[in-house]
Design brief:
Elements (H helix, E strand, L loop, with lengths): L3 H6 L3 H7 L11 H13 L1 H24 L6 H10 L9 H9 L4 E4 L2 E4 L2 H6 L13
Antiparallel strand pairs: 1-2
Length: 137
Amino acid sequence: MKDSNQRYYAWDYRVLRKFARHYSTGEVIPEKLVESMQGARKMFAATDLQRQLLVCQMFAATIWQKLCQEDPLSLATGTALRTKFLEHGGAKDPTDLLTDLVGDGILQSRDGGIVPDFTSLCDELKLEECGQEHVVL
């Protein structure tokens, strides 16, 4: 994730005090304000984690249905997982990894970003109405 370091640097008072100043007085951001902001941020950490998990489940369900469900122990399935997905580690863009593994459609462009296809997860959970328009990430 490109912004993972930014998450930490942008919330550390030692970093913020170097540049975060009041627009008219030039006064450095108060440490108590940063602590308060950090508290508010932590309040929503569970929601952030849940969203990251919901997305992981969507990818896992799609990979299972499109690649593994028919014969999860086949040589072809194992080889595809190893050569198209696992062996690249962090050296290849995740979007390319997923598309190479299961084909087009696992990710869809929407509102200037990408959203995972969650029809496989909806099928797995036996949800009858599961349209892409309901996704909020």
